[in-house]
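Researcher: Predict the fold of Guanylate-binding protein/Atlastin C-terminal domain-containing protein.
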Amino acid sequence: MEKVGTNDLNEDFVKEVESTVKAIYSQLPSKYIGSSTMKGVSFVKFLQNIVECMNDSETLNTISIPSEYESITQFVAQVAIKEATEFYEERMNTLKNEGKLPILWEEFEETHIEYISEIDKLFFEKIIGSPKQIGSFVEQLHEKIFEFKKEFRKINFRELMIYNGNIAKKVWSRYIDNKINSFKNNEEFQAALESFELAYDKSMKKSLEANKVITSYKRNQYPAAIDHMKQLGIMNKRLAEAMYLREETDRLRREAFERTEAIRIETAAFEREREKFRENFESKISELQKNIEEQRKFNGEMNKVLEDFQKF
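Model: Structure tokens for Guanylate-binding protein/Atlastin C-terminal domain-containing protein follow.
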């Protein structure tokens, strides 16, 4: 019988069997693996394994419910991890494929937290097992998500560098390159530098990458422009040295801010993500505790039935 495909059976027979099975299972109490409710893919997998084992005429092994439970727990976890990582990758790819990158890091982290929170919620609904097992499965999931997140961070970093680099190149050309041979004095040159920075600040996407771009200009283009002004005789050596020092000081200040800002963004994102995770995890633990109480209640009722039966 096990070799007969469903499509080979009488259609009315199949419908009747499906209806009967649904009626039976709709009346059954909840099934558990440990303190986790066995439902959906876990219950289907459990029944499938049991039926396959029973129908296998060559098997010499006795069905072991505990080993089946462990097998199903691992199976469900891996399915849930795979689905969750695919969901995250698909959502994040949407940002890239729809041309929404680059985005500011605060928005990037908010988007990540939104997706990971949704993933955690769906993940906790599916996985089964003890709290220790669930913790291990969550760790596996977050390790995979972290790897995907790193890749998307690299993409956004690159896009931010390109975007802000193009802005800097455009305004540098407008205010410095196209006019550097026409400045009459140092005041005009410094005013042009200020105009460059104002125009850049107005058009850039404010981010650590924007800061990297401007510090790169202060390390490279600024000294080159100052040297050119010296060669033209518009700026003397003493004034040039003063400008070198001023721009170098500003560059170091910006780099220090960059490091501090990176820590601030990462810390804030970590705290928000941890809070969302705590909410979902506590909800799962609450479910497990409720299941334990249900099992205790059921066991108590069964013990009472047995006691009453023994009185006869």
